[in-house]
């Protein structure tokens, strides 16, 4: 099984797949990935903050995000670089996530303070599909995991991140009309 129908696509035996419906059209959902202020509002699992989002969403560009743990967990920071391979607004993003230090120097997962079973490079594909009534189905797929425990930990973290994104775009009346149209 692969993430798409290309023969060179990464295998997905231990894939993380998160899908949510957002109450905004794809062009607005796209801003969750391309607007630094919005990205800082949802990146990181529940209780974590994102004090840094340096965004350059273009093929060959990269985004550097910092996720900070809550004080009760020691307030540690983890920095990731998302190196973009495919940028097709407002439909598809493909990037590889790696760990970096604050200056942007590549780190191994162990050097970054995460389990060594996390891959050095984690391919991601983000699909934004239009739905009726101006809504969007977001599907995020991560691949490269070699064991179920590490995959499950990432799944839980991504679920929480995308839940935070979904809440940003949730309108009180369920239509998305009151969501931030940046």
Automatic annotation (TrEMBL):
Residues 23-169 form the Activator of Hsp90 ATPase homologue 1/2-like C-terminal domain. It comes from the Bacteria. Belongs to the AHA1 family. This is SRPBCC domain-containing protein. It comes from Cellulomonas wangsupingiae.
